[in-house]
Design goal:
There is one protein chain. This protein is of the alpha+beta class. It has one domain: Alpha-D-Glucose-1,6-Bisphosphate, Chain A, domain 4 (2-Layer Sandwich). 30% of the residues lie in helices and 39% in strands. It has three helices and seven strands; from the N terminus they run βααββββββα. Strand 5 and strand 6 form a beta hairpin. Helix 1 crosses helix 3. The protein is globular, with a radius of gyration of 15 Å. It starts with a strand and ends with a helix.
């Protein structure tokens, strides 16, 4: 599953906001709160442990497997029912940046085809909500800065 959005401005600005842990709850769909974050974040090998809101994914553990400044990050994730890989890429243009968010989930147990289809649809919509909210947050950051 993947979703993309094009935002005005340089990739470095988008990347700085993307890795700002204090802002994740405002734009990451289904994000609750950080439990633990390694000092090396977003570098390869660092880990993030977070809790989703009640009644959803529960505890999520993410480990960065690849990081390239201004280009993106790949991480492995695991929650109670799924494992997988998530990638974010930043493709800089002259006056805009394309951000692509991709998730490759694998169920821990066998999932009926109808439920898998439903989950994939929900995931695709969640990725798009995350990117849309991120674009709003980035626009506000550019307009108002950190004074908000």
């Amino acid at each position: 599953m993947k979703a993309s959005i094009v935002v005005p401005g340089r990739a470095v600005e988008a990347e700085q906001l993307w890795y700002d842990r204090t802002r994740w709850a405002s734009w990451v769909d289904g994000f609750g709160k950080v439990i633990r974050l390694d000092d090396g974040w977003p570098q390869a090998g660092s880990r993030l442990v977070w809790d989703a809101p009640p009644g959803s994914r529960g505890r999520v553990v993410e480990r960065v497997t690849r990081y390239e400044p201004r280009l993106g990050q790949t991480l492995s994730f695991e929650d109670a029912t799924w494992t997988g890989v998530r990638r974010v890429t930043f493709e800089p243009g002259l006056e805009e940046t394309r951000i692509t968010l991709e998730v490759e989930p694998e169920p821990k147990e066998r999932v009926p085809p109808a439920r898998k289809w439903w989950f994939r649809r929900q995931l695709r919509e969640s990725l798009q909500r995350t990117l849309t909210r991120f674009s709003y947050e980035l626009a506000a950051e550019r307009q108002f800065g950190r004074e908000r």
